[in-house]
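Appendix B: complex inputs.
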Amino acid sequence: MTKRSNDDDSVLVPVELLIRAAGNYVVPSDNLRPRTLEAARESVADRAGFFRLARLFLVLLFCSAVSIPALDRLAAWHDKSVSPSGAEIQNQANEFATEKGVGPHWGLYEAFKRLRNHQAENLSPKR
Amino acid sequence: MKTIDPFTEQIRGCIECIAETGAAGLSGLFDLTAHRLVRFAVTITRNQHDAEDAVQAALVRVVSNIRLVRAADTPWPYLLRMVRNESLVILRKKRRWPLVSSLADLLTRRCVDEVEQEETYRAVWSALRSLPIEQSEVVVLKIWEDMTFAQIAEVLEVPQATAASRYRYALSKLAGHLRSLEQEVTRD
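Resulting structure:
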């Protein structure tokens, strides 16, 4: 852009010379430089902050997408794996003893046997 | 063979610097181009404060969109176009305000050996402000930026013939305006 163009069919006329000479008359204000550099720095920082937030949001989205089904499966497995309380075992033992006319020790043995079978069934891999 | 002028090379260097160092690299581009960008923007906004705002916005945009600027074949016309767009945005917002014809807003440089020329310079700037923006921007690009009509057409996004005819109209108007001012001065 420093070379004079060829498509101007005449040499510089006086008006052009006058205008050319006045080109450096107007100058930028002293505070324009620091103002512009500061604005650019702020703009870069804002963009970096925005991208950080966006990345965080994506990571959270990914984590929730992965963890929600995993938690669901865990909860289902947890429901299956919860053992009955001591009182429930005792009740089952009493019921079995009354039903079959056997002693409470035998009833307790049978209740535990059923519980073990039930747990083994739940924990065994499904085909 | 395509020749690349030193100014374009310097701008490319500054753009590479911004691409590497971010906002810290903007100072080089500012020092190289601010004066020329501001005087171009002043001819569009007709107000130095608005012109500086436009230049600031354009340079900030350069930093945030450095990949686009870097990919431009001709970075200087691209930069001028960015400043022009920002200036037009500012101008559009302020359309309702009357355009000031005085030069009170301008920040000028007064060299000791150019004191006598000051009146002429003021007359030139005043005459430029009397032109429609479409014409004054062509004059600025042609005379101060030494651009060809093809390059001006690229910056202003108009046909080359339009740029040339705007320039001719503008120059004849400026000649008349400056002649009448000269006569006034001689009479005084």
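The first helix of chain B runs from residue 6 to 21.
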